[in-house]
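Why show two proteins at once? Because comparison is the fastest way to build intuition. When a single record is shown, students tend to memorize it. When two are placed side by side, the eye starts asking what differs. So, the first record is below.
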Amino acid sequence: MARSSLTLGPSLAERARRPSALVARNFFVQVRAVPYVWASGLLEPILYLLSIGIGIGHLVGKVPGPGGALVPYAAFVAPGLLATSAMNGAIYECTTNIFAKLHWAKLYDAVVATPLGPTDIAVAEVGFATFRCFLYAGVFLATMAALGDVRSWWAIMCLPAATLVGAAFASAGFAASCFMRSWTDFDKVQMVAMPLFLFSATFYPLSELPRWLQLVVEALPLYPGVALCRQFSLGHPSASAFGYIIYLSVLALLAGEVSRRRVTKLLTP
């Protein structure tokens, strides 16, 4: 009796392995059916850095970095664009694609008929989006290094930092998708993403803003990622980096829990 009770339900290793089946499915479908999606994500850093970092950088000159020293504008803005690219990639993967699978293709209705459950779906989709952000961040960081926008060996830490940004926004995007009712709701996503892109100190030092506006920007979810990547890229990590990491980790965990609960409610008869 004791032996049979130990075998009831899936083991911990099996529960951890189940989401990988959906991750593998997503990978093969996207690589074989829509490879241009991956190609566009890999080309994005080059286009960003060439147009904004180099083009505008010659006009702006140097700006104060995290340590107060003046740095070329391209080196200043590149890590901010890295964090922004991670946010945009995660939001796209976990809003448009998730909504289509949930309400249009009805993919998840078929998935829950297998041993996978709603929690496995949430873990797999957020994990897959985070993996894409990791790959894109690696290409972005390599491009930064090739263009001379990296100022320290600390820059290697930009890779896990950008991946953490991707995980946080992937979880938030998945949670938001589970509350959307129609395609018109994606306008609301852009209403959130665009101000984050423009007002998270991506293109200018935070010190240029009034103090009250600095406090608002520091509370935005993209700012910790921008500041974290910039500190590492320019070689000036500080104690505030721990606060940024905690902020993004808490956001990922809370949004992940909302995602799990909401998708369970939607897929449970």
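Second record. Ask yourself what differs from the first in the token line.
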Amino acid sequence: MNHIDPSVTVDSSVKIGYFSVIEKDVKLGANVIIGNRVTIHEGTVIGDNTTIADGAVLGKSPKPAKTSTVKLSDSIPALEIGEEVTIGANCVVYRGAKIGSSTLIADLASVRENVEIGNYVIVGRGVTVENFVKIGDRTKIQSNSYITAYTTLEDHVFIAPCVTTTNDNFMGRTEERFDKIKGATVKKGARVGGASIILPGIVIEEETFIAAGALVTKNTEPKTLVKGVPAKFVRMVDERELL
């Protein structure tokens, strides 16, 4: 048995599994498929031909801990999901996020509030996308990567599995840190190898190639290959590999 509020916009083309809850003022596009035990919170907008797998929670309102540095506005807009999006099993996508068309949010991923994700993006299994993140079109983030708050990933960026981004050089101490919290900016076409770590505020320039396991402590130059701990210049990226 499902609970669907009478105010929900839904037509006969929508398919809903068992034991799902859809709260008031939700708008479901044509041919949307909703699995079992899905919760869709108030005001969420879902585009045509989108598929939502079992156990997903969409439009959840954030509630930071008392000691959290997250500052929320009084009014967070409803979650917006574009057309032909796939939301995996047991994903949690918060209110205040905006997901572009033809994007995949894979199983067990988490997307926080105040996040913008473009079109044709892949957010892999178990990926965490924190608040105030922007992700450009056709970017791929592979399994178990961590995209910290205030990070920007531009178009056509590739993030390999288990990459970690960071945003706080003070690691939670001193008042000074509040004005300096900043994630990485990874520019168009850059590629970040598996298990790399990017320190706060680093700029990864266009078409940079970061080798697996690198510790990136300095801004890169465009079209360069860097590797090591700390990461250092090795050579220019082969022209055949560029976008």
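One difference worth noting in the second protein: The chain has two domains: 1-63+75-138, 168-243.
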